[in-house]
Design goal:
It is a single chain. The longest helix has 22 residues, at 316-337. The chain has helices at 2-20, 30-45, 49-52, 124-127, 136-142, 184-190, 210-217, 229-247, 258-265, 288-295, 316-337, 365-378, and strands at residues 57-65, 68-69, 94-95, 98-105, 113-116, 147-151, 251-256, 271-277, 300-304, 342-346. With 382 residues, it is an alpha/beta fold.
């Protein structure tokens, strides 16, 4: 990890040189370089509204965290036949790690954000919207928060695993499934975008049109191996440790849906705060998860969108999300009663309406980002 950090620091100096139009750089520290870039950004931002919206990246890169190496296949590796030996004798495989794409802005405020997607998703969901607008990673980069976007083990760019998934219920394909199992309409309804695709609920903030819906559905990606919450939590603990080593700061941990369930299990020592977007559940009061978060004094904010209290009563997902939201409220009451700090935001109560399970991709994603930023600043983060 240390060699990789040195390489990225050097790359960062070069990147800032190009971004600021400088032909060369002296042997200043990276901090000085970033400060210079920030001054340049401030200078150009006074020249017009368009310039003030410019996003300047000081450095970016990718790395993997956690994971294991399989035992060698029985037999001796033969370099003369290498990949043509179908037995793979003597070969090992690096599997079950998390993969991270990171960007550090020129106006870095020193508090990184680590993003973990939900079920059927990858980091792509944080990076863009179905209609091509800026995703939360860009919006928060402009606010000064470095972005570390994770693909969890056995998903997306972290797909390497030793055994193919056997989950024929959730995943669209599995070892024991003979046929591909589609799910566009099922997930569309469950995510509270509309009753039946392509219709949207009245007042919906989800981007309208066939092209946007097509782009949304094409973000979905299955697990390559079975979902393992403990394995994912361990890998994310390694991610947070690596981010701390790289930046010197604890991370704001942003989770969504199934990623929220993983988030409660992640080791707490490198977490500055948790932002949970409609997590699939919340810890039981007094549980090991609960006590860990409480003892680490981690502030938590949990967001829920629309069409929960006012969703169609004959759709089973309405009751599901009501139960999840009510469970989060009970968690917050217990957590705060025990000296913790948890806020549950029901967006319609804030006058922010029309949001589905994917509020960070919708037409008002910037409004919700501003709401989160205000909470972060209240907590001294950013």
């Amino acid at each position: 990890m240390k060699k990789r950090i040195i390489a990225t620091l050097l790359a960062g100096i070069m990147a800032v040189s190009m971004l600021t139009g400088c032909g060369s750089q002296s042997a200043d520290t990276v901090q000085d370089t970033l400060a210079d870039a920030g001054q340049e950004e401030n200078h150009t931002s006074t020249e017009g509204e368009a310039a003030s919206e410019t996003l300047m990246i000081a450095r970016q890169g990718m790395f993997s965290s956690g994971g294991t190496i399989t035992e060698p296949v029985e037999g001796e590796y033969d370099p003369t036949t290498n990949w043509m030996d179908a037995t793979r004798a003597g070969n090992t495989a690096h599997v079950d790690h998390a993969n991270v794409f990171y960007q550090i802005p020129a106006n870095d405020n020193g508090t990184p954000m680590v993003y973990l997607h939900g079920y059927g998703q990858s980091r792509m969901g944080w990076m863009t919207t179905p209609d091509g607008r800026e995703g939360w990673s860009d919006l928060f980069l402009k606010k000064g928060y470095a972005s570390f976007l994770v693909d969890q083990p056995r998903r997306g760019e972290a797909g390497a695993t030793a055994t193919m998934t056997t989950d024929g219920f959730l995943d669209t394909w599995a070892e024991d499934s003979k046929d591909y199992k589609p799910g566009d309409q099922a997930w569309y309804t469950h995510f509270r975008i509309g009753r039946i695709a392509p219709e949207r609920y009245e007042g919906s903030q989800f981007p309208e049109g066939d092209e946007a819906q097509d782009q949304f559905f094409r973000q979905m990606t299955p697990n390559t191996g079975d979902f393992d919450q403990a394995l994912d939590a361990s890998a994310l603990g390694s991610v947070l440790e690596d981010v701390y080593e790289m930046t010197g700061s604890k991370s704001i941990f942003v989770t969504h849906s199934q990623g929220g369930a993983v988030g409660w299990d992640v080791p707490a020592e490198n977490i500055a705060a948790i932002i949970a977007i409609e997590p699939g559940g919340t810890p039981q009061a007094g549980s090991e998860q609960y006590q860990k978060l409480l003892e680490a004094d981690i502030p938590i904010i949990i967001y829920f969108g629309d069409y929960i209290d006012n969703g169609p009563e004959d759709v089973m997902s309405t009751g599901f999300w009501q139960s999840v939201r009510d469970g989060a409220i009970q968690f917050a009451e217990s957590y705060n009663g025990d000296g913790g700090d948890c806020t549950v935001v029901n967006l319609p109560d804030e006058g922010i309406t029309g949001n589905s399970h994917f509020m960070f991709q919708e037409l008002n994603n910037d409004v919700i980002a501003d709401n989160i930023e205000a909470w972060l600043k209240e907590k001294g983060l950013g």
